[in-house]
Amino acid sequence: MKITVLGASGRIGTRLVDKLRQTDAEVVSASPSLGVNSVTGEGLVLAVAGSDVIIDVTNAASFGDNSALAFFKASTENLLAASANAGVAHYIALSVVGTPRLIESDYFRAKMVQENLIRAARRPYTILHSTQFFEFIGGVVDMGADGESVRLPSASARPIAADDVAEALSRLATEGALNDTVEIGGPEQFGLDEIARVHITANEDTRAVVTDDTARYYGVRLNDDTLLPRNDARVASMRYVDWLNRSMAN
Q1: What span, in angstroms and rounded, lies between the C-alpha atoms of 118 and 126?
Q2: How many CA atoms lie within 13 A of 228 on its CB side?
Q3: Which of 9, 66, 126, 152 has a CB 3.0–4.6 Å from the CB of 144, allowing a cystine?
């Protein structure tokens, strides 16, 4: 089996390539730094030629403006066209739990466009919705920064380690196309304010976390279940405190 990973130099892509290379699969790493650009099309035909599976873990450079829409639209259209021409049997894409409920945000509206393009292509596909990565909790804290405090809502989330997301994608590559969306989340549920307090304490940050349910998440007002996966979601194994201990030991 030949698998091409688009976005192979990113946070998930590097982990995914490492996991796939522990299997019998032939793995092609593709990213702009490796001469493959899904937006311009540079190197794309050669990268996907002969591939059985494409895994798209590309991401926009910006979360806060309309550039995300331009990125995901161009990238996904190019990848779908190249996949069809190469006869790829399974197109896998990584997206975010709650995307349909977060489209007030420019970024999540762009992710919804990406998902809709994949579904409309009528090619065999699987979309993996993941909850927020542990590695992004610091960014959530920064998003809520307000002087000497951090203001975040108590909306619930089930964050997950990036390693567990990469493992889930690796398994999907061997399962065959589901023509559906599957979801994955971490084993524990936290309020965003709660996990921010754990993060701040672990990093010896002196700021206080203020619970403010009017505070927005990437511009969106959250309900308690906006960020939660479905009841049938796959459940990852890594706990946040274990991930913190491991990451701080490195």
Answers
A1: 9
A2: 15
A3: 152
Kindly report the CATH number assigned to the domain that includes residue 217: 3.40.50.720
Q: 146-178: per-residue pLDDT in tens?
A: 989 999 999 999 999 999 999 999 999 999 999
Phi, psi of 188 (to 5 degrees): -125, 150
pLDDT confidence of residue 247: 84
End-to-end CA distance of the chain: 34
pLDDT for 42-98, tens place per residue?
999 999 999 999 999 999 987 666 789 999 999 999 999 999 999 999 999 999 999
Report the domain count for the chain: 1
Domain around 14: 2-249
Provide the pLDDT confidence category of residue 218 given band limits of 50, 70 and 90. confident
Torsion sign over Cα 108, 133, 164, 154: negative
Instruction: Residue 159: name the closest of 241, 232, 245, 101 by CA.
Output: 241
Q: 156-157 and 190-191 as β-strands: parallel, antiparallel, unpaired?
A: antiparallel
Residue 46: its H or E element: helix 44-48
Which of 58, 127, 72 is closest to 105 using CA atoms?
A: 72
